[in-house]
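Students often ask why inverse folding is considered easier than folding. One informal answer: many sequences map to the same fold, so there is more than one right answer. In these notes we will look at a single instance of the problem. The structure comes first.
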């Protein structure tokens, strides 16, 4: 097994065993849109269209449904009133967290089984991988 395959297997194991129990029915596409808004500054409907490889009209319909659920807001750009940017609501942040993060109690229980050196190694490995991932082109 290559390192990439091993890392993917470890990641799926981590998520399977440590994920938060989902409370709402929400599509993967909605989560991806919400992640885009969370992880990038000044996200527009065009950015959503690019992420999903759909027309701006289709992206606008997706965004409209997420706004209706109370997870996103449209706001005018503070420096250019012609631009509309998307923002997560508090409810949207909570839903996104529940659907993309690990359960902190379960994660802490796993960390408690490690030595301080093992915890430091895991923390440094995740920090480094996260840092390098941010420099990759992805959506």
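Output (designed amino acids):
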């Amino acid at each position: 097994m290559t390192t990439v395959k091993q890392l993917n297997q470890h990641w799926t194991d981590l998520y399977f065993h440590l994920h938060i129990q989902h409370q709402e029915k929400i599509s993967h596409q909605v989560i991806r849109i919400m992640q885009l808004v969370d992880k990038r500054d000044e996200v527009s409907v065009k950015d959503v269209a690019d992420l999903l490889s759909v027309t701006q009209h289709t992206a606008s319909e997706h965004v409209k449904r997420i706004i209706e659920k109370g997870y996103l807001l449209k706001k005018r750009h503070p420096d250019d009133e012609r631009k509309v940017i998307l923002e997560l609501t508090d409810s949207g942040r909570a839903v996104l967290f529940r659907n993309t993060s690990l359960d902190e109690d379960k994660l802490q229980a796993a960390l408690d089984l490690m030595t301080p050196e093992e915890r430091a190694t895991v923390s440094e490995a995740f920090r480094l991988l996260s840092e390098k991932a941010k420099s990759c082109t992805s959506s």
